[in-house]
């Protein structure tokens, strides 16, 4: 019974919300839209979910497999100690072997428990997305500095909205949502953005990159590469890092994604693709189910052959109900609702003969009471 109810609900939902338009290839509440992929959350907050790419899990093997020193001639190296990778002064920046762009990034870090230095000289490092734009790492627990160089700042661009840091020696968590800038033919289509949470507190909220920031100079919007490594800075302080992982984000419309507001050209192409899939599926069905699938395809694209076949199926449906109406009330109401939907949204002319035929069937059998 539950399966029947769900099937009926899904079928009726296809003629429910507003249809596709010039910038949206999907109807509102569209069941043809792909279901979100299943992701299993981590067992505890901060643990990597099932689709995460883990860059450092606390082991020496993980560090060697996923990271490399950027500085070729060095006397010291980053060390894995007690499940964390620790910066050694003079070792230089490390970078991930993996290259990626738009992502959800999780990083945990800890400044030395023994406080030394002040301002930018205390527990300083940095997390560089795509190796080029920095979220500052700095021990700002009772340690003022210039605000756009504060922990959680988009360095040189935007101070954090709050300072939720734990005391030195405690672990801090960064959860970062990063979108790279999109520039085509010299035109900035999307400036890119950062959303950052420190220890669960939002400190950056869709902050525009404004070129990615930097030291002393004001950056300007610019093109970024398609992908780049994650870099962690050596700023001379023994900052520790652990539990580093990321998840790629779905594409935005400006880079080929099909969710959200699309261009007219992209919408038209996607609607044609959906309609073709529906016509193909209709060919595997018979009777009312084939008719409904064809009518559904017309919501996305008017195809003359689909219209012709739907006309034939519609006449056969009406004739079949006239010959044997018993138990067909639900079928007729369902087809009638689909036709009314198509008329309402301009996919079918309001004087189409099917409208009168269905009204007559409903009235003759007392299904309008």
Strand-helix topology:
Layout: H1 2-13, E1 53-56, H2 60-66, E2 67-69, E3 79-81, E4 84-86, E5 94-100, E6 103-110, E7 125-129, E8 133-137, E9 172-179, E10 182-184, E11 187-190, E12 193-198, E13 201-208, E14 228-232, E15 240-248, H3 264-282, H4 287-297, H5 304-323, H6 329-344, H7 353-364
Mean pLDDT, nearest integer?
93
Assigned CATH superfamily of the largest domain:
Exo-inulinase, domain 1
Share in β-strands: 15-25%
Distance between the termini: 25 Å
What is the CATH architecture term of the largest domain? Answer: Sandwich
Number of helices: 7
Structural class by SSE content? alpha+beta
User: H/E series, N to C?
Assistant: HEHEEEEEEEEEEEEEEHHHHH
Helix content: 25-40%
Radius of gyration: 29 Å
Shape: elongated
CATH fold naming of the largest domain:
Jelly Rolls
Largest sheet: 8 strands, antiparallel
Q: Please mark out the parts with pLDDT under 50 across 5 or more consecutive residues, or reply none.
A: 1-11
Look at the structure and give the CATH class of the largest domain. Mainly Beta
How many β-strand runs? 15
Number of domains: 2
General description of the model:
The model is unreliable at about 1-10 (pLDDT under 50). This protein has helices at about 1-15, 60-65, 265-280, 285-295, 305-325, 330-345, 355-365, and strands spanning about 55, 65-70, 80, 85, 95-100, 105-110, 125-130, 135, 170-180, 180-185, 185-190, 195-200, 200-210, 230, 240-250. About 25% of the residues lie in helices and about 20% in strands. The protein has two domains: about 1-25 and about 260-365, no CATH class; about 55-255, Exo-inulinase, domain 1 (Jelly Rolls, Sandwich), CATH 2.60.120. Helix 4 (about 285-295) runs parallel beside helix 6 (about 330-345) and helix 5 (about 305-325) runs parallel beside helix 7. It is built from seven helices and 15 strands. It is of the alpha+beta class. Strands 1, 3, 4, 6, 9, 12, 13 and 15 form an eight-stranded antiparallel β-sheet that branches. A five-stranded antiparallel β-sheet has the order 2-5-14-7-8. Strands 10-11 form a two-stranded antiparallel sheet. The chain starts with a helix and ends in a 5-residue tail after the last helix.
């Amino acid at each position: 019974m539950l399966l029947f109810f769900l099937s009926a609900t899904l079928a009726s939902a296809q003629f429910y919300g507003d249809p596709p338009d010039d910038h949206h290839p999907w109807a509102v509440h569209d069941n043809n839209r792909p279901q979100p992929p299943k992701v299993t959350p981590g067992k505890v907050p901060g643990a990597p979910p099932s689709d995460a790419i883990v860059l450092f899990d606390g082991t020496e093997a993980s560090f060697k497999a996923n990271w490399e020193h950027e500085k070729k001639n060095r006397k010291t190296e980053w060390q894995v100690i007690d499940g964390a990778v620790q910066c050694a002064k003079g070792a230089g920046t490390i970078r991930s072997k993996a290259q990626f762009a738009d992502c959800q990034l999780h990083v945990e870090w800890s400044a030395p428990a023994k406080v030394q230095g002040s301002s930018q000289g205390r527990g300083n490092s940095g997390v560089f997305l795509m190796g080029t734009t920095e979220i500052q790492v700095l021990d700002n627990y009772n340690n003022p500095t210039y605000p756009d160089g504060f922990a959680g700042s988009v360095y040189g661009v935007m101070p954090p909205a709050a300072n939720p840091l734990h005391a030195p020696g405690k672990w801090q968590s960064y959860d970062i949502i990063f979108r790279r800038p999109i520039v085509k033919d010299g035109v900035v289509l999307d400036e890119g953005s950062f959303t950052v949470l420190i220890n669960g507190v939002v400190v950056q909220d869709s902050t525009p990159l404004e070129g990615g920031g930097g030291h002393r100079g004001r950056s300007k919007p610019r093109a970024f590469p398609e992908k780049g490594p994650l870099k962690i800075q050596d700023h001379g302080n023994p900052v520790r890092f652990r539990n580093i992982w990321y998840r790629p984000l779905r594409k935005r419309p400006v880079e080929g994604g099909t969710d959200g507001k699309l261009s007219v050209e992209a919408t038209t192409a996607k609607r044609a693709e959906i309609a073709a899939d529906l016509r193909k599926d209709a060919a595997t069905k018979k009777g009312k189910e084939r008719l409904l699938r064809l009518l559904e395809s017309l919501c996305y694209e008017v195809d003359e052959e689909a219209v012709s076949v739907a006309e034939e199926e519609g006449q056969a449906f009406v004739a079949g109900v006239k010959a044997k109406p018993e138990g067909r009330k639900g079928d007729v109401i369902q087809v009638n609702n689909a036709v009314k939907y198509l008329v309402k949204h301009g996919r079918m002319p309001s004087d189409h003969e099917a409208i009168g035929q269905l009204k007559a069937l409903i009235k003759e059998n007392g299904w309008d009471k």
